[in-house]
Amino acid sequence: MSLAERLQSLFVALAALAGLGAGLLLPIGPDAEHVVLPALLAMLACVFVQMDAAHVGEVRGARTLVVVSLVLNFVLTPALAWALGAGLLGGEPDLRIGLLLLLVTPCTDWYLVFTAMARGHTGIAAALLPVNLVLQLLLLPVYVLLLGGRAAMVDVGTLAESVLLVLVVPLALAMLLRWASQRWKGADWRERRILSPAGTLVLPLLYAAVFAMFAWQARVVLDHAADLLVLVPPLLIFFVLLPLIATGLSRLLKLSAAQRVTLTMTVTARNSPIALAIAVAAFPDRPLIAVALVVGPLLELPVLALLAQLVRVREARGERASRG
């Protein structure tokens, strides 16, 4: 894991603070608005172009892990997201929607890094990526409309168009680019000229989107700073409860050590960039929803880093004990 990836949470916070300061001190808000969605779409295309469908076959040897991860990600987590929002954010409809968007979108990028750090099965983790992506593409409008209740207040067509714009368009462009570069230039050229540069652009594009978001909505953030703090308890509950559930089920089902790590990371990591892009596209007149989604990775990334170390240390001790 590179230094830039290790410091990602810090850089997200710095980008938010810099955008907030710029938005309050300079008249750049209207211009910054037009940067957010294009930066997020470009970032998602860079993420998707690195996806390799060849890994999908590896899920055949880990059917129990796959089934459990799908149940936790697409059944338990939406129910938990609704319960946390209703119980702790009942008076904040925009924050409830922001929390829901964050928690019902499983990660499709950086969880691979933390899985590798924790000595998990990266092949199975990579194979789960397109599965998680397709399912959240299909189910996200359903979750928002069914679980968001009156707080959602968005037309079905608008939400479907937003998901189509944010997920399908970048995914289709990325897959077309992968195929064309492989077909006409070869795998080596694609790796050097497409995949490697795309990997280096993901984080700068995320930071640019966060900067522009806070510059655009600086006054909203300032006016609702205290409200954003109420997101911390439900997020902490989620990021503590899901790893415990995943670890307990892994041991109950007698998954291997590598598969336990993979399951824990897969069900804990969330897809805040996609959720943010959908919030910007579907709820342009409710900026607090999108702003709330930036709070997620500020907690999530340190939690994932700590969790990777805890799981890796625990497994290492177990291996030493078995050898003794």
Would you give an account of this structure?
This protein is 81% helix and 0% strand. With 324 residues, it is an all-alpha fold. The model is unreliable at 313-324 (pLDDT under 50). It is a multi-pass membrane protein.
Write the layout of secondary structure elements.
Elements: H1 3-6, H2 8-25, H3 29-48, H4 63-88, H5 93-103, H6 111-117, H7 122-147, H8 156-184, H9 187-216, H10 218-223, H11 225-228, H12 232-252, H13 257-268, H14 272-282, H15 287-323
Helix pairs in contact: 2-9, 2-15, 3-8, 3-9, 3-14, 4-5, 4-7, 4-12, 4-13, 5-14, 5-15, 6-13, 6-15, 7-8, 7-13, 8-9, 8-14, 12-13, 12-15, 13-15, 14-15
**Which sheet architecture does the biggest sheet show?**
none
Distance between the termini: 31 Å
Mean pLDDT, to the nearest integer, reads 80
- Estimate the helix proportion, in percent: over 70%
CATH architecture: Up-down Bundle
TL;DR of this structure?
The protein is an all-alpha fold.
List key phrases describing it:
324 residues, Na+/H+ antiporter like fold, 15 helices, disordered C terminus, mainly alpha
